[in-house]
Amino acid sequence: MAIPTNIKTLLSGDVVEWARIEFKETWDAEASLKTVCAFANDLDNWGGGYIVIGVEENNGRPVYPLKGVPTDKIDFYQKSILAKCKLIRPAYMPIAEVVDYQNKKFIVLWCPGGDSRPYSSPKTMAKDNKERIHYIRKMSNTVEPSDDEEKDLFNLANRIPFDDRVNHQADISDLNITLIQNYLKEVKSSLYEKSKTGDFIEVCNDMNIICNLPEYTKPKNVGLMFFNMEPDKFFPYTQIDVVQFPEGLGGNNIIEQTFKGPIHQQLREALQYIRNSIITEKVVKHSDRPEADRFFNYPLAAIEEALSNAVYHRGYDEREPIEVRVENDKIEIVSFPGPDRSVTLEGLKSFHVSNRRYRNRRIGDFLKELHLTEGRNTGFKKILDALEANGSPKPEFETDEARSYFISRFYIHEKFQNVPKKEPKKSQKGAEKELKKGVERKKIILKLLEENPTMTQTQLTERLKLTRKQIQTDVKELRGEGILERKGSNRKGYWIVNKEL
């Protein structure tokens, strides 16, 4: 079984954070077993980690020249790894691969977060030892957990992140081998050659995108998100909507572009669209010096990072798209739900955020391999640096007490304020929406709700091919005028139309 990345990537630290990699000159069973256990517990949902044997380390970084594992030690180390890892409870086994690099051999252990947390391993290798510890990772160290951390570990039992769960409604045939091969080739994985000639099930198993039991083989959610052409069949509203309001939120002219498909593909296509259709550069020349000032209405790097983070952190079990709202003076990127409660409202306002829990650890790993997102807790800095370099105003990050949504808000560069904008090209979809406006649109909504009082706002959005914002605004106004009334809860309630418009 092969690892999903390559040793060159691990040694660089560019994709997998240093805190998730441990370098060992030799196989030390007592120390390394604790680290295997800690990665398996994956308290912060980081996606586990890697142990690279044959590399001397200094302050967590590899020391060059690399030493490698002596050829006569390879078999002994592998047998010892197998025997010692059997001491972990409940049963857990990392994926081990012998790799060649710079004419030397290394052993790489991939230790993904386990499905049966919490795990424990012996405190020592002494024969009379009976004490077991639920080891965890703290920064780059393997440590014994505090009482509170151990409680957190037990709370994680049977709480497998959504992206790592088995999808029982899908089939192995829903995974597209071409998409898988393209990904493996792009990230330079050693699995690429195997994918061209090897067994498809085995390749998927090596990538940990399926649950493979002798009698039951099903894809995991993360596999369907990246390697199925229509993930929205399994996760409704897995899409990015870029919505432009040339006349402001109250205007009738709305241009919407929707991006679907594998989540990394829709992210790239949405960013390309934003780059081509929304980002504008201004060049100001000066008579007293040859250098011109160049700046953008919005720095692309900041928008890229915010949208990538929305794809990374959104809830794929929520029937809500990611929405990029482009107004005359700002861009808002809206996703659902909001961040973990370890992110405080005060921290968001001061841009001091350290997220402890990660909703989609597997999605994050794939996106980082594709260089579509940065390491953990680095996104805010990249956004702030890009805005400062462009001379743009500070951003705003917003959520509510219930953490039900998250908004990244970017204001236009001051040199672009009050500048007449070109009329965007209207898609057919945008032209159709322009017809359904004002009173006419509200009448249609009332008629539909009178015929079907249990209809939801999401269903209205689908039926009328309108944006969620339009439906929400119209319904709010109708309720404020006493024309429309809601009885019961959002889930089990119904609408009452009190009078005609």
UniProtKB/TrEMBL annotation:
It comes from the Bacteria. Residues 17-142 form the Schlafen AlbA-2 domain. Signal peptide: none annotated. This is DNA binding domain-containing protein.
